[in-house]
Amino acid sequence: MANITKQTKIGLKASIYFCLFLLVVSLFFMRSNWSTAGAWMGRLSIYVFWLIAIAGILKRFRVKGFLYRVQQVLMANRRQLGILMFMLGLTHFFWSKVFDNILNGSPQSIPTYQPLGLLALFLCLPLAITSNRFSVKKLGKFWQTLHYLVYPVMFILAFHTSLQGKDFQILGIYFSLGNTVFYGLPSLTILILQIVSHFYDKKMKTRAV
Ligand code: HEM
Question: pTM score > 0.85 for this model?
Answer without folding.
Answer: yes
